[in-house]
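Please check the following.

. . .
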Amino acid sequence: MAFLGLDVSKEKIDCCLLLPSLSKKPKRTVIKQSSQGYEQLHSWLTDNSVSLEGLTTVLEPTGVYSHQIVRWLYNQKASVCVVQPTQARNFARYHKMNSKNDAIDSQMLAQMGMEQGLHLKPWTPIEPLYEKLNFLLKRLNQTVQMRRREMNRLDGHDGIDAFIEADAYTKATIEFFDSQEKQIFAQVQELIASDVTLSKDFKLLKTIPGIGLKTASFLAVLFNTRTFTKAEQVAKFVGVIPREYKSGSSINAPARMSKSGSSFVRCKLYMCALSVIRGNSRIRKFYDRLIVAGKSKSCALGAVMHKLIVIAFGVWKNKLKYDEQFETNRQKCTEQIDDSADSPCLECKRALRPSRTYHEEHMQNDAVKAERSEPRSGCLDSELHVLRISAQGRGAETRNSDET
């Protein structure tokens, strides 16, 4: 198997090809960032007796510049692995690659695919609806940031004649961003309403205190476009988990928020946390307990952000509305549950915990047990029947001996 490393930039792509034979030197070429350059890459690989189908390609994401080449390689049935820059840089440091340029980076990526190809996850495109929503939500966030910058330019200009003419253009720009924000968000709402799954998730996420319309839209798209299986994976992706830095007795730094994930979502969670601690919910009580325990306000606010994303993932995964009395209701159901398969308490517990529970697995009624223990059709039916009768007889003898 051959491995191709690509260092993508605005105008060109540096390519490095590593063949299975270690005795062969790496082959290099530089192509243009265009459709003609992609065809040139195809011809160059063919000249080196390498087929695009099944080729392992490794590259770093470079925003809009890597989008087209990744799509083209995927359509050519090549295995495309998009690695994070931090991951690639740590690999280079491990192999003591101190220098950095486009040629070295492409060879480093090809070597990374050769050594860690089995651990790299191939890139797969998301649905067109989700992709459109991702770009619209990013543009919405950019519009909000640009409007905030323009509003900051107006601070302290009141009463100063020299700024009157310039501030008129600034105010016009703010009005433009306001109208654009409303248009983008209206389009996002229409796209979410057009999909049954997204609309249900959006309505469920809105039931969480502090989470508004925009944040619910962000989270609904995030959960449906990622392969999260646990809440801790989501918290790590967002970057709201604590990070320790301790060693022996000399290094004992306080734990801080990692902030190693998506700042795009973390910014939304921060505003949601500020909103929810002003209300009178269980999350506010959780925040107050941390403050009473001696935690700083910033630390307690980070814990609230972590709690919000965990609750949001739980609501999305279980398809249940947020319930402040969730723990109390679950304890009551656990205490009142009986052996009946049609018990309302059992149904309630199934709704609270959709996965297979202890009672569903072990506390079935006699009819279900008898149905599952029916002998298989075949020549061994009589033998199984005799074994079952003898086992019941041994059980009766054991009970009689215990009673005596």
User: Anything to note?
Assistant: DSSP finds 17 helices and seven strands in the chain. The first helix runs from residue 35 to 47.
